[in-house]
Amino acid sequence: MRPLFHPSVEDVRPEAILHALSDPERAAIFAEISGAGCVQACSAVAVVGDRTIPKSSLSHHIKVLREAGLIRCERHGVEMRNHSRCGEIDGRFPGLLASILSAYALVARKVCGG
């Protein structure tokens, strides 16, 4: 198997983060991974709202998040384990991820009538 690409934190670009999180499903997946506080298997983040994301789409979303530097992925047998790089990213771009995730949470509350 090919090794997975993970950019060093010095190579992470704000435009890559913004692009990765511009998709609402990807933002929801990232929020789930970053909010868990532990390693998440892909199957644990496959449901967004009331919708199950197809495996092919989930793989694509995980790849975009990984290549943007937002998550680190490790293969364990047939399972892919993901964890957030929020601490590293916040050290480089303080407050960026918190602001983006807060904005998504605000929009989600308005859509749900909250």
UniProtKB/TrEMBL annotation:
Gene source species: Nitrospirillum iridis
Keywords: DNA-binding
SUPFAM superfamilies in the cross-refs: Winged helix' DNA-binding domain
GO MF terms, alphabetically ordered: DNA binding; DNA-binding transcription factor activity
Organism lineage string: Bacteria, Pseudomonadati, Pseudomonadota, Alphaproteobacteria, Rhodospirillales
Stretches assigned to the HTH arsR-type domain: 16-98
Statement: the UniProt record of this protein carries the keyword DNA-binding: yes
InterPro entries: ArsR-like_HTH, HTH_ArsR_DNA-bd_dom, WH-like_DNA-bd_sf, WH_DNA-bd_sf
Annotated Pfam families: HTH_20 (PF12840)
Keyword Secreted on entry: no
SMART domains: HTH_ARSR
Superkingdom in the source lineage: Bacteria
Protein name, as recorded: DNA-binding transcriptional ArsR family regulator
